[in-house]
Amino acid sequence: MKFTPVQMDAMQELTNIGAAHAATTLSQMLGCEISMSVPEVKMVDIADVGVILGEEVTTMILFQLQGDIPAGGFLILHFSNDSALHTASIMCGVPDEDRPLGVMDQSALLETGNIMISSFLCATSNLLGIMMLPSPPFLVIDIGHAVIQSLIVQMGMDVDDVIVFKVRLASADNRIAGDIFIFLDDATIRNIATLLEAMVNPPPSPA
Length: 207
Hints:
Elements lengths: L4 H26 L4 E11 H8 L3 E11 L5 E7 L1 H12 L10 H26 L3 E3 L3 E6 H12 L5 E10 L4 E10 L1 H15 L7
Antiparallel strand pairs: 1-6, 2-3, 2-4, 2-5, 3-7, 6-7
Helix pairs in contact: 1-4, 1-6, 2-5, 3-4
């Protein structure tokens, strides 16, 4: 199913609040100003996720989702290789130069992803009223399309549509683009749609 335009607007508002919380946490940890925004939220057919990621090698941080999600779910934080390197450089406090992602870079990306997604989900879950807890992160550097195909096989649940968030991070010297993909079963998507609708059109207070 797809969210209605009104439900999508509500989701956009929630995610921008979640992004602000994530940015605050990152800024406090790094001791410098980090901003995070979510300029676009959309739903796509699961078959189109691999097309979005393409056939190039990319950096992905994977989380399993638990909480008020009976069938569970998955979340992917995706960066292009350039954006992954910029992010690692900010976290490690090293010059932003072209280099392969080393062990320290990968550790920094895992920590960044864990902070971002934990803060993001905590804020949005509290506002929405449905608990979504991320597992410890797992880093994958591979062809995006191949990872998605493998993930679909492993999920073993009924997923038709994927929620996609365009993410923008910025510091004084860097601008970083990424994507968040959330894979949930259809029943959970319908539940979220109902909660979004209730936020937009709350029931009347009893007289």
